[in-house]
Amino acid sequence: MPDGRLLIGNKRYSSWSLRGWLAVHLAGLDVEEVLIPFVRNAGGGSTPAIAAATPAGLVPYLEHKGARVWESLAIAEYCAEQAPGLWPEDRAARAVARSVSAEMATGFRGLRQAMWFNAGRDFAGLGRTPEALADIARIERIWAECLAAHGGPFLFGARFGLADAIYAPVVGRFLTWQPEVSATTRAYMAAVRAHPLVDRWYREAQAEPDSWLLAGYETPPGA
Ligand SMILES: N[C@@H](CCC(=O)N[C@@H](CS)C(=O)NCC(=O)O)C(=O)O
């Protein structure tokens, strides 16, 4: 019997779910995966089944051995407690890993609004608002600094860790919207996309039924 459950949304759309799901899998927690497909009503608002099943009305949400954890960063920290080594071992590197993860979790609204996560579409060349491009420039600087300091292929070295999990959905956005990025960024994107867990997420996203598709996330801007 599993030790709990992880509630997530559609793998095709839910960038936050991807972060929690990666953290839980990196930590090797034995939890049941419960996927609640998003519903969009004309009046807006979030999915009633998610609102009813989670403390904040949002996914991801983790229940594990009596602990209840929501917010992606809190889930990442909980997973790091369960499986030490998911943050860098070095204190100074760990401080940067936490900082860049928090910067992602609390910022980059320009990117998030203009280039939403869709694991099944090619919106190449679209969404290039000034705000999104400014966020992308900052993200590229973060990645370049981390990769240079730790030698890649992941942000803090050889191992795909929690900072990579937090940025994996950004890689996904870049794959879908294909902004112009540096060769360093492209190499990092390729490493993240090839990670077995990220690849599994994409395969499972592609296997979701057409009845779960939401027009708002399938229609490119200006269409
Ligand atoms: N700050 C939260 C954000 C979570 C979030 O916004 N989740 C979205 C999905 S990606 C959600 O649950 N939306 C409910 C809905 O669309 O019905 C976190 O870090 O986990």
Q: Name the CATH class of the largest domain.
A: Mainly Alpha
Number of DSSP-assigned strands: 4
Helix content: 40-55%
Indicate the mean pLDDT: 97
Domain GST N-terminal: 4-87
InterPro entries: Glutathione-S-Trfase_C_sf, Glutathione_S-Trfase, Glutathione_S-Trfase_N, Thioredoxin-like_sf
Organism: Paracraurococcus lichenis
Protein name: Glutathione S-transferase
What does this 3D model show about the protein?
With 223 residues, the chain is α+β, with helices and mostly antiparallel strands. It has 2 domains: 4-84, Glutaredoxin, CATH 3.40.30; 91-202, Up-down Bundle (Glutathione S-transferase Yfyf (Class Pi), Chain A, domain 2). It contains 10 helices and 4 strands; from the N terminus they run βαβαββαααααααα. It has helices at 15-27, 48-53, 72-82, 91-106, 109-114, 130-150, 162-177, 183-194, 196-206, 215-218; strands at residues 4-8, 32-35, 61-64, 67-70. A 4-stranded mixed β-sheet has the order 2-1-3-4, with helices on one face. Helix 1 (15-27) links the parallel strand 1 and strand 2 (32-35). The longest helix is centred in the middle third of the chain and has 21 residues, at 130-150. It is globular, with a radius of gyration of 17 Å. The structure holds glutathione. Glutathione (GSH) is lined by residues 9, 14-17, 38, 46-47, 50, 58-60, 71-72, 105.
